[in-house]
Amino acid sequence: MASQASTRKSFIDSSINLARSNNFYGLDLDWEYPSMATEFANLGTLLNEWRAAVASESESSGNAPLLLTAAFFYSSDYYSLDYPIQAISNSLDWVNVMAYDFYSPNSYSSPNLTGPPAALYNPTSQVSGDTGITAWIQAGVPATKLVLGFPFYGYAWLLANADNHGIFAPANGVAISSDGSITYSQIKDFIAQNGATAVFNSTIVTDYCYAGTTWIGYDDTQSISTKVTYAKGKGLLGYFAWHVGADKAFALSQTASQAWGA
């Protein structure tokens, strides 16, 4: 779609019509992920044309301009490919930074070691929320246009040894579901039903729990509160979560809201 002017125009026009017909405040782009330099260049062109079309529609209709946002990789550097920073800064109202899915038990990720799916800090590598936010700011996107994302879900691993149950413990792939994913609500039920031990790691800012050979990495209230406080301290625009339907009795949502307002 983004590679040709005609298909970009079709996408842009139809998205604006969709937003207006449903009385949306704006539109959010989720492209996971451009994989070549030309695709990142096309993304920049798409964003610039989208912004111009939104401004034109607002002027002709008399309505307030639609908001334009996008969900992007946790870092401005996607495996040595750079996001189009100027287009992002000029054309988007904000960026939803997907600072999660760093570790999972899937074959393409880390099936042989447990890990913090949404680490804010990572003493073992550059894969963390803080590293990503720092990269976006250093690349030139204002902090006030960045929104820190966190997951209302986690991942379950099958431990190789039930007695070795820390972060980065040996594992044998997925547990509980076909891809290991599990919602926060299901995690809290698992803890209650299995008498699982729950641990908050303040160095990495992550939570995990374990019972028998099942190990789950996730974000609980302490991690969420710490991340929101971090976002405020960095001067970010805000935070978002994927997704509120996975929360349990709005525990994480309320924690985040209270931390932001503190």
Automatic annotation (TrEMBL):
<dbReference type="GO" id="GO:0004568">
    <property type="term" value="F:chitinase activity"/>
</dbReference>
<dbReference type="GO" id="GO:0005576">
    <property type="term" value="C:extracellular region"/>
</dbReference>
<feature type="domain" description="GH18">
    <location>
        <begin position="1"/>
        <end position="262"/>
    </location>
</feature>
<keyword id="KW-0326">Glycosidase</keyword>
<dbReference type="InterPro" id="IPR017853">
    <property type="entry name" value="GH"/>
</dbReference>
<keyword id="KW-0378">Hydrolase</keyword>
<dbReference type="GO" id="GO:0005975">
    <property type="term" value="P:carbohydrate metabolic process"/>
</dbReference>
<dbReference type="GO" id="GO:0006032">
    <property type="term" value="P:chitin catabolic process"/>
</dbReference>
<dbReference type="InterPro" id="IPR029070">
    <property type="entry name" value="Chitinase_insertion_sf"/>
</dbReference>
<dbReference type="InterPro" id="IPR050314">
    <property type="entry name" value="Glycosyl_Hydrlase_18"/>
</dbReference>
<dbReference type="Pfam" id="PF00704">
    <property type="entry name" value="Glyco_hydro_18"/>
</dbReference>
<dbReference type="InterPro" id="IPR001223">
    <property type="entry name" value="Glyco_hydro18_cat"/>
</dbReference>
<dbReference type="InterPro" id="IPR011583">
    <property type="entry name" value="Chitinase_II/V-like_cat"/>
</dbReference>
<keyword id="KW-0325">Glycoprotein</keyword>
<keyword id="KW-0732">Signal</keyword>
<protein>
    <submittedName>
        <fullName>Chitotriosidase-1</fullName>
    </submittedName>
</protein>
<dbReference type="GO" id="GO:0008061">
    <property type="term" value="F:chitin binding"/>
</dbReference>
<comment type="similarity">
    <text>Belongs to the glycosyl hydrolase 18 family. Chitinase class V subfamily.</text>
</comment>
